[in-house]
């Protein structure tokens, strides 16, 4: 235990206790009057520009909400930009029932969560070997991994289908979980091994001197210290898998296995698009993503600067 | 350290739960039982086919006690992209609504993934209901449509018509045109009042269909055959030359708005629904939508005046996968959807049934639809769509029609189309 404590203290400050100090700092900044007094015309201009940008960002959501709660007659008479004449939840209801959206949500959550967890585990193991173990030919391996990630899915889809069908896994959620675990962990390995490549060597040596084996070093030292990176990976893998379209579309043909983005295609026919229905389905489709964002927004915004911190 | 430990163990436990749930939920869904008929289609539940087929399912279950029909609603995209793979697996349904055409049903018939329905066609007499050009998309020889064995059965057909806003016609004193000259005069009346008479969309199928509508004015059956299946289109002939020149004139005169060059078919529909344009020439697939959505004015439809041929064809088709488990039930189900009561339901909801009984239909809108269709079918006037002859031609047509709208010379546009057509053929 004493060793562990010593190691804990050796962590860089920025990695330890990431949450607590933030809140008071932010409050403090707002309450201090100094900032307001120092505002120049340029900062007002920046405010206006940012406000306009924010509006542009929010506008599509507003459109989706407006059209999602409109009747199709209302849409036909007044077009997409008008405010709904009355609030109608019929489209939302119809869409939910037609696609059995509860089941669809369960599928998406299950697949995305399994992939996120498995891909992170796999990435940790392989990145440990590549980044810290520094095995031979690691650059070649990384390039290969990256290549696998760069291949368009359209090129992969037929071989994947063939394998799945041969193994009797076609139209099972398991096959999609396996495929995305591999795809995401290819990128995860690439990212994490470059992060681990810069891992403080002294820590590893100290642990080794204290008698920790390879396995123990991984779980007791490398993983806890790299936790910020790993949580970012976890959330990103979840979102990326959530948004995947082509592979679930092709490999999960039956309705009981459908995922959210595939179900959203229901409002689009051969010649026709049912705009209000599409808006309603988009509303239901982005709702889980918004909830997810609100829960994990701290991790996500940390992810944006991940490359910078390394 | 302890805190870290607890956090890790909870997240591991959560992972374990997820894994267990994932594995238990991943059992294979393929099951076959003689008492279950699986039907997959992509017609929305409140659409004409959706309503009619729901009734067909009820009729079928009544006639086959002990059999349950399991219907799954798919998306068009799903079947378009994943259909071939689905049909090649043991998860294939017993009956599937599939996309007509050489690249879809044709290809799969060649690969042996679809059941040859020819014996059933004779047995149930489907060829008496599906005749002439409507049957073209049902029959494939070596993957090419037009003749040979039957692989699909359409329940509905499609054809292009002129939708018009009765209120606007009345307001501007325009009568429903019966000749092409009257039609052009009507266009001029609206254009001189500052109204764009025709709703269109350049970045989608509508504009190229206007061009094709015009070409069909000067076309006969042999022209249609040469263009569609003969591989002998001549874009320098009188029909195409006149069509391209007239189309460009119409854009110049404001009959078709120049700024629709980048709009989509949805924009076109909205322009008509909002009363911005009094006319719109497009397929019967709009009929049901307008019936349920247009409340602010009354509307009607007429066939393109003076044309021997109009764009149109049989609709998407029922197929029975080669790997279907209950083929006999599947044939019975397809036959049920062709019965007069189901067919009339399709008409009442605003789509074009292939085998309706017009004496049984009371709704005047549905009556128009059926009588227009039957006159077209009787004279073999359905000329398919301009992009059918070669694969990938759709995008060429879009870009060349857009060029035409933007002022390129008709000669240039037509020769570009000829090149694309020849290239497509040689592939």
Write up what this structure looks like.
Chain B: This is Extracellular solute-binding protein. Chain B: It comes from Actinospica acidithermotolerans. Chain B: Pfam families: SBP_bac_1. The complex is a heterodimer of chains A (310) and B (427). Chain A has 17 helices and no strands. With 310 residues, chain A is mainly alpha-helical. The model of chain A is unreliable at 1-34 (pLDDT under 50). Chain B has 18 helices and 14 strands. In chain B, strands 8, 9, 10, 11, 12 and 14 form a six-stranded mixed beta sheet that branches. Chain B has a five-stranded mixed beta sheet with strand order 2-1-3-13-7. Chain B has a three-stranded antiparallel beta sheet with strand order 5-4-6, covered by helices on one side. Chain B folds into two domains: 36-155 and 315-356, 3-Layer(aba) Sandwich (D-Maltodextrin-Binding Protein, domain 2); 158-313 and 383-426, 3-Layer(aba) Sandwich (D-Maltodextrin-Binding Protein, domain 2). In chain B, helix 11 (238-252) crosses helix 18. At the A-B interface, helix 1, helix 5, helix 6, helix 7 and helix 9 of A face helix 1, helix 3, helix 12 and helix 13 of B.
Shape of chain A: globular
* End-to-end distance of chain B: 67 Å
According to CATH, what is the topology of the largest domain in chain A? MetI-like fold
Average predicted confidence as pLDDT of chain B: 89
Indicate the CATH topology of the largest domain in chain B.
D-Maltodextrin-Binding Protein, domain 2
- Give the total of domains of chain B: 2
Determine and state the CATH class of the largest domain in chain A.
Answer: Mainly Alpha
Average pLDDT, all residues of chain A:
83
Give the termini separation of chain A: 28 Å
Radius of gyration of chain A, whole Å: 24 Å
Taken as a percent bin, the fraction of beta residues of chain A is: under 5%
- Strand percentage of chain B, roughly? 5-15%
Low-confidence stretches of chain A: 1-34
Principal-axes geometry of chain B comes out as globular
| DSSP strand tally of chain A | 0
> How many helix segments of chain A?
17
Greatest interface and its residue counts? Answer: A-B, 57 and 51 residues
Quaternary structure: heterodimer
Secondary-structure element order of chain A, as H and E?
Answer: HHHHHHHHHHHHHHHHH
């Amino acid at each position: 235990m004493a060793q562990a404590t010593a190691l804990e203290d050796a962590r860089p400050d920025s990695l330890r206790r990431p949450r607590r100090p933030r809140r008071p700092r932010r409050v403090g900044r707002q309450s201090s009057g100094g900032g307001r007094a120092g505002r120049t015309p340029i900062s007002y201009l920046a405010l206006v520009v940012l406000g306009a940008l924010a509006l542009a960002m929010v506008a599509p959501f507003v459109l989706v909400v407006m059209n999602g709660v409109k009747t199709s007659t209302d849409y036909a008479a007044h077009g997409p930009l008008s405010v709904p004449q009355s609030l109608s939840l019929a489209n939302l209801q119809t869409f939910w029932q037609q696609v059995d959206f509860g089941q669809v949500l369960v599928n998406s959550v299950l697949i995305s969560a399994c992939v996120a967890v498995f891909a992170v585990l796999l990435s940790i193991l392989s990145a440990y070997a590549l980044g810290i173990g520094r095995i031979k030919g690691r650059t070649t391996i990384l390039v290969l991994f990256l290549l696998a990630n760069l291949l368009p899915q359209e090129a992969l889809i037929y071989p994947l289908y063939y394998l799945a069908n041969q193994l009797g896994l076609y139209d099972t959620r398991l096959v999609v979980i396996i495929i995305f675990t591999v795809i995401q962990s290819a990128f995860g390995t690439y990212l994490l091994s470059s992060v681990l490549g810069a891992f403080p060597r002294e820590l590893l040596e100290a642990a080794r001197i204290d008698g920790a084996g390879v396995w123990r070093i991984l779980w007791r030292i490398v993983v806890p210290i790299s936790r910020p990176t790993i949580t970012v990976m976890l959330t990103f893998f979840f979102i990326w898998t959530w948004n995947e379209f082509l592979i679930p579309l092709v490999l999960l043909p039956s309705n009981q296995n459908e995922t959210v983005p595939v179900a959203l295609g229901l409002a689009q026919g051969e010649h026709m698009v049912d705009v209000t229905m599409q808006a309603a389905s988009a509303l239901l489709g982005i709702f889980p993503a918004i909830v997810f964002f609100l829960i994990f927004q701290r991790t996500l915004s940390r992810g944006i600067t991940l490359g910078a911190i390394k | 350290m302890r805190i870290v430990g607890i956090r890790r163990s909870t997240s591991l436990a959560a992972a374990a739960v997820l894994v267990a749930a994932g594995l238990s939920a991943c059992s294979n869904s393929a099951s076959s039982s003689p008492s279950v008929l699986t039907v997959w289609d992509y017609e929305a539940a409140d659409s004409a086919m959706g309503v009619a087929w729901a009734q067909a399912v009820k009729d079928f279950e009544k006639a086959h006690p002990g059999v349950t029909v399991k219907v799954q609603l798919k998306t068009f995209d799903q079947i378009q992209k994943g259909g071939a793979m689905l049909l090649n697996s043991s998860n294939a349904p017993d009956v599937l609504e599939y996309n007509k055409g050489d690249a879809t049903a044709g290809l799969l018939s060649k690969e042996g993934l679809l059941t040859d329905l020819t014996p059933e066609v004779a047995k149930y007499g489907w060829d008496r209901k599906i005749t002439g050009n409507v049957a073209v998309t049902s029959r494939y020889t070596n993957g090419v449509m037009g003749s040979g064995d039957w692989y699909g059965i359409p329940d509905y057909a499609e054809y292009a018509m002129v939708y018009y806003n009765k209120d606007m016609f009345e307001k501007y004193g325009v009568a429903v045109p019966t000749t092409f000259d009257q039609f052009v005069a009507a266009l001029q009346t609206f254009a001189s009042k500052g109204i764009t008479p025709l709703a269109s969309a350049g970045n989608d199928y509508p504009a190229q269909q206007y061009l094709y509508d015009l070409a069909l004015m000067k076309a006969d059956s042999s022209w249609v055959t040469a263009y569609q299946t003969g591989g002998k289109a001549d874009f320098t002939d009188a029909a195409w030359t006149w069509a391209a020149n007239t189309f460009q004139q119409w854009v110049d005169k404001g009959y078709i708005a120049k700024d629709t060059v980048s709009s989509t078919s949805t924009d076109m529909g909205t322009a008509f629904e909002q009363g911005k344009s009094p006319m719109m020439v497009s397929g019967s697939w709009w009929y049901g939508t307008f019936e349920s959505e247009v409340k602010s004015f009354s509307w009607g439809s007429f066939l393109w005046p003076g044309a021997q041929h109009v764009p149109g064809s049989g609709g998407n088709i029922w197929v029975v996968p080669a790997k279907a488990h209950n083929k006999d039930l599947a044939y019975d189900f397809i036959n049920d959807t062709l019965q007069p009561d189901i067919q009339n339901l399709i008409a009442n909801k605003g789509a074009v049934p292939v085998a309706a009984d017009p004496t049984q239909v009371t709704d005047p809108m549905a009556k128009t639809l059926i009588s227009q269709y039957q006159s077209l079918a009787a004279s073999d006037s359905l000329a398919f769509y301009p992009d059918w002859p070669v694969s990938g031609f759709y995008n060429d047509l879009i870009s060349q029609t857009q060029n035409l709208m933007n002022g390129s010379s008709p000669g240039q546009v037509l020769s570009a189309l000829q090149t694309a057509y020849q290239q497509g053929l040689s592939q």
